[in-house]
Amino acid sequence: MADHRGKSCAHIFQDMYGYKWNNDQAQLEYLKNYLNQECPEWLKKYVGYGRSSLMRTDLPSVSFLQKTSSSPVSCHARGFYPNRAEMFWRKDGEEVHDGVDKGEILPNNDGTFQMSVDIDLSSVAAEDWTKYECVFQLSGVKEDVTHRLEKTRILTNESNTINLIIPVVAAVVLLGLIGLIGFIVYKKKKNAKRPPSPVENATAPEETKFLPEP
């Protein structure tokens, strides 16, 4: 019986099965074929399957958001892939740090990602807003995605409220017109069915005059 004192588990396992495997020519040929042919082929296939995901780059849709006219302006990028991305505000070619609040990269339900970076422009004159631009950089893409800030492109809750009020007012006016037209038609039909009234100016019968007897 072999003496296993002072040996590790690996050495003991090798002593127990190594001799058997080394003398099993069929097993050795199978392992040789698997390692030299089958395994590399499977690796190539898996790399090919994953290449589309590894090399995939999806640029985002970028929009400007603002809750109210006095709130910070948010540059929001949505739908990009992979998640190795950077986004920042720039003015006159220089990155802006003051008043900037950068958010985290968050996942979307479709496997893409989104992120936002806010900037406080409350102390900046309205005519100077166009000097600012939002810059998005995605890993694997050489060119930056740049969007210049314009007030007409900012989506706000205030504009959304106005957009909701206009259809409601239009619907109320339309219902009022329909009701008025219906009332007029009803009155006309009712008057057409009413029987003719008696002639109010009909002449009364002549009063009979009696002559005095002679």
Automatic annotation (TrEMBL):
Residues 191-214 are annotated as: Disordered. Signal peptide: none annotated. GO terms for biological process: immune response. The keyword Transmembrane helix applies. Residues 60-146 form the Ig-like domain. GO terms for cellular component: external side of plasma membrane; extracellular space. The chain crosses the membrane at residues 164-186. InterPro entries: Ig-like_dom, Ig-like_dom_sf, Ig-like_fold, Ig_C1-set, MHC_class-I_related, MHC_I-like_Ag-recog_sf, MHC_I/II-like_Ag-recog. SUPFAM superfamilies: Immunoglobulin, MHC antigen-recognition domain. Keywords: Glycoprotein, Membrane, Transmembrane, Transmembrane helix. This is Ig-like domain-containing protein. The lineage of its organism: Eukaryota, Metazoa, Chordata, Craniata, Vertebrata.
